[in-house]
Specification:
The chain has ten helices and 13 strands. The longest helix has 21 residues, at about 85-105. It is of the alpha/beta class. Helices cover about 40% and strands about 15% of the residues. It has helices at about 10-25, 55-60, 80, 85-105, 150-165, 195-205, 225-235, 255-265, 290-295, 300-320; strands spanning about 5, 25-30, 45-50, 65-70, 115-120, 170-175, 180, 210-215, 220, 225, 245, 250-255, 270-275. The mean pLDDT is about 95.
Length: about 325
């Protein structure tokens, strides 16, 4: 039985990853500041710890691991990342976690480590055209991420790769493109577009309207959580150690994403575009490298995942209504 440790196991992706690793027969240790919000962790052990503190990372990795998944980060959606109000915390907190993780993974002879990077590392100047953004892996340099979150992710990619060169740490790096699904944040300021739009639609009166930040012409691609984990496990089982995109190539405008959710709800709602943080104008996963190296690509259409996500978010709202 392999021992797998998941940093960030209380978060959306981390909790789903714990479930996947358990289902595959691993002994799983989850580590996070908090337990999962929406379901009980299935980890064999769950360590509640602040990974910004080196001693906690040291303790969590005692005895080593066959696989370490480093997903812990200070992050959120556009309302958290692009306002500028949280830049110092985002960079400081995430960098500390990654610095300690790299050092202690070497100390405790972790056999293989996965680092979750982000599509936010890609240069803003390559993503001004919403119909034709450039997000191939080699386009990351010359660097100009659109946020401090992106800069920290790019720094940490280089950190883990330098530990691979100098200390033999066996590293896998994925640049995630907007992972979504049930049990993601859907309110409170850190939610991302799919869950936020689902909430707005579910809350709206039948003939009302919902607000969308920006012109709504900005584009993104979104990858459902189950397919994300398929890609992660495929990467970890490979020998490929350079950064690679894990995302969908089904690009959609934010207004059209909202229209998709409105149609799922059966309501007749209007869209009101307002001022708000939006990030780059276009972003889409370029999957040529992962297809060539790992023979992997997502297969489920966006609509299928959005159906599941809307049903789940609507159920959360229903549960909040006093009976």
């Amino acid at each position: 039985m392999k021992k797998a440790i998941v940093f960030g196991a209380g978060g959306f992706i981390g909790n789903h990853l714990v479930k996947r690793l358990k289902a595959e027969g691993n002994y799983v240790v989850g580590v996070d500041l908090k337990h999962p919000q929406f379901s009980k962790s299935l980890a064999n052990e769950f360590i509640t710890a602040d990974l910004r503190i080196a001693a906690n990372v040291d303790n969590a990795l005692q005895g080593g691991a066959d696989e370490l998944y480093q997903l812990a980060a200070d992050m959120g959606g556009a309302g958290y990342i692009f306002t500028g109000d949280n830049d110092a915390n985002v960079m400081h907190n995430s960098a500390l976690i990654n610095l300690h993780t790299a050092e202690m993974a070497v100390k405790h002879q972790v056999k293989k480590i996965f680092y979750s990077s982000s599509a936010c590392i890609y240069p803003a100047f390559n993503q001004t055209d919403p119909t034709n953004p450039l997000c191939s892996e080699e386009s990351a340099y010359p660097a100009q991420p659109d946020s401090e979150y992106g800069w920290e992710k790019l720094f940490s990619e280089r950190l883990f790769l330098s530990f691979q060169r100098n200390y033999g740490l066996d590293v896998r790096i994925a640049r995630f493109h907007n992972i979504f699904g049930p049990e993601s944040e859907w309110q409170g300021g850190k939610e991302k577009a799919p869950a936020a739009i689902c909430r707005k639609v579910a809350q709206a009166d039948n003939s009302g309207e919902i607000e969308i930040w920006g012109s709504g012409t900005q584009t993104r691609s979104f990858l459902y959580i189950d397919e994300c984990l398929d890609g992660v496990r495929k990467l970890m089982d490979s020998r490929f150690s350079e950064p690679v995109n894990i995302g969908s190539e089904e690009m959609i405008s934010i207004n059209n994403l909202a229209k998709m959710v409105i149609a799922l709800s059966g309501k007749k709602l209007n869209i009101k575009n307002i001022e708000g943080p939006v990030g780059v104008m276009g972003r889409n996963s370029d999957n040529r490298l992962i297809a060539a190296e790992l023979q992997w690509k997502p297969t489920a259409p966006l609509l299928e995942g959005m159906k599941k996500t809307y049903v789940w978010v609507n159920a959360q709202l229903t549960a909040q209504v006093p009976q």
